[in-house]
Design brief:
This protein is α/β, with parallel strands linked by helices and 229 residues long. It has one domain: Metallo-dependent phosphatases (Purple Acid Phosphatase, chain A, domain 2), CATH 3.60.21. It has 8 helices and 10 strands. The strands form 2 sheets. Strands 3-2-1-9-10 form a 5-stranded mixed beta sheet. Strand 7 and strand 8 form a beta hairpin. The longest helix has 18 residues.
Amino acid sequence: MITYAIGDVHGRDDLLEQMHGRIAADRRDRYRDARATIVHVGDYVDRGPDSLAVIDRLRKGVTGFETVCLKGNHEAMMLDCAVSDDRQLWSNWRANGGDATLRSLGLAGLSGGCDSGRLTQALGAARLAWLRSLPLTHHNAAALFVHAGIVPGRPMELQAEHDLLWIRDGFLGSDDDHGFLVVHGHTPMAEPDVQPNRLGIDTGAVYTGRLTAAVLSETERLRFLVATA
């Protein structure tokens, strides 16, 4: 079994398209007969220019692969705004790059305002249903995949959604053996953050022009693929 885990995309559909192509070629060249999974660790929207295109690409999946898309904190913020006109919620989303998503949806005029009805209409029922169905975690023989991380020492069934989507302190500095490798995004680094108990794969695609995927195999050492602008 081969798992390709892709870091935070943030509206960079150009890099995501390139990465999917690199992954398909890598599998064809190295693992033609292996079962292969692509796990996206969340944060598909905000900050970058093409959030809508990213959503639609991910909804289609990748031919020949099991495709897993996890929820990120940015999807959570957008979904909160899709059901509320609370100004604080909208202000927080826009402060974290939501204006770029609004422009992608053709709602540039909403910058500085809030209108859950127009956001819901622009996303459409099918996209909203897909976004609301995104799981928080994925676990296979290679690792636990999650957007931000976990609370060390807490059983998975007791982990809170907020921590899985937002945690940094308490997780990033922990050297606890979690019982499995935790592969996560959320915290951008110049290079993949390889630790004995976790693997951070957010290389800040929207800032650096570099989208990273980790290749986890039962027979090879950890490798990385990179899509660049």
